[in-house]
Write a structure and sequence with these properties.
single chain, about 300 residues, six-stranded parallel beta sheet, three-stranded parallel beta sheet, 10 helices, 11 strands, about 40% helix, about 15% strand
Length: about 300
């Protein structure tokens, strides 16, 4: 029987979307045009099509203009980079997402790195990753920001707390570790070669699982009173499942995210917030050359 507080990511995400919608309306009133989010989708992977459609729908709901560039699966690296370059140069586009994974012949890291860092709403360019590591302002990856927002909303003490992150990907594990460090947590990052993972996890006040292995984190790996954040999204015969054995962990945790309905809904909400942040930071559009007063002599 679960004793923990169930962290309601759906509700927190809905609140953020509402707030972004209000701030977008204010942005439009001030600037005369909306923030713009562009997606680049290569090929016809059905899951990627669904994710991209979801990003467009969510953008429209909050008043962000969305632009979809769909490219055939035989697109070359140069053609892809050219499209990213066009979007980098387009003043109506404030955020750019290259939807991953790309077809095997394309280099995803090269494509995401080609995005102008000021439009990098996925926070994946080396520039934004570096700013995060140095604790400087920048665009942060959406899912890790969503994790932090949930911890903040549910008053999770982080200062001096031991945070254990299982997973070290550039997308989730590493950025969430540095965001926790920035909140003065003592952070341990675990991965597939970590010795005695269970023992390390048991010492966590805050346990973040971002692995991609259903129920890797068992109840025995959770300390009494810990906060457990499950980033995992695993499609199994039993349906969508996280990386944590929810029932067993909830019996010991202070608070825990369910899957679905925990971290998942936060990702798009934080992406929308990033797009607004990027649009606010963009320079005001200058009148085009020749539009100003004519000077003579
Ligand atoms: P990833 O790139 O595959 O990274 C997985 C990490 O887990 C790696 O660092 C790997 O270690 C580590 N790992 C694998 N097996 C392990 C084990 N037995 N013990 C300890 N560590 C182990 O995955 P990702 O992109 O970070 O995604 C992780 C999960 O989050 C996936 O289920 C994904 O679907 C989900 N996700 C959800 C959202 C959302 O919106 N909720 C967003 C993004 C991702 P090595 O580095 O040593 O290989």
């Amino acid at each position: 029987m679960a004793q923990a507080t169930i962290i309601d990511g759906k509700a927190v995400a809905a609140g953020i979307r509402q707030q972004v919608a209000e701030e977008v309306a204010q942005f439009v009133a001030e600037r005369g045009s909306p923030p713009g989010l562009a997606t680049v989708l290569v090929g016809d992977d059905p899951a990627s099509q669904i994710y991209v459609a979801g990003k467009h729908r969510a953008s429209e709901e909050v008043g962000i203009a969305s632009v979809g560039r769909e490219l055939p699966s035989d697109t070359s690296q140069e053609e892809l980079l050219a499209v990213v370059g066009e979007l980098n140069a387009d003043p109506a586009v404030h955020g750019i997402i290259v939807q991953l994974p790309l077809p095997a012949h394309l280099d995803g890291a090269r494509a995401t790195s080609a995005v102008d860092p000021v439009k990098d709403v996925d926070g994946l360019t080396p520039t934004n990753a570096g700013l995060l590591v140095q604790g400087r302002d920048g665009l942060r990856p959406a899912t890790p920001s969503g994790v932090m927002e949930l911890l903040r909303t549910y008053d999770t003490p982080l200062e001096g707390a031991h945070a254990v992150v299982v997973g070290r990907s550039d997308l989730v594990g590493k950025p969430v570790s540095f965001l926790l460090l920035a909140q003065n947590a003592t952070v341990t990052i675990c991965h597939s070669r970590t010795r005695d993972l269970a023992e390390v996890c048991r010492s966590a006040d805050v346990l973040v699982a971002a692995v991609g292995r259903p129920r890797l984190v068992t109840g025995e790996m959770v300390r009494e009173g810990a906060t457990v954040i499950d980033v995992g999204m695993n499609r199994t015969d039993e349906g969508l499942m996280g990386d944590v054995d929810f029932e067993a962990a909830a019996a010991k945790a202070r608070a825990i995210t369910p899957v679905p309905g925990g971290v998942g809904p936060m990702t798009i909400a934080m992406l929308l917030r990033n797009t607004l942040q990027a649009a606010r930071a963009a320079p005001l559009e200058q009148p085009s050359a020749g539009a100003g007063p004519v000077r003579s002599g």
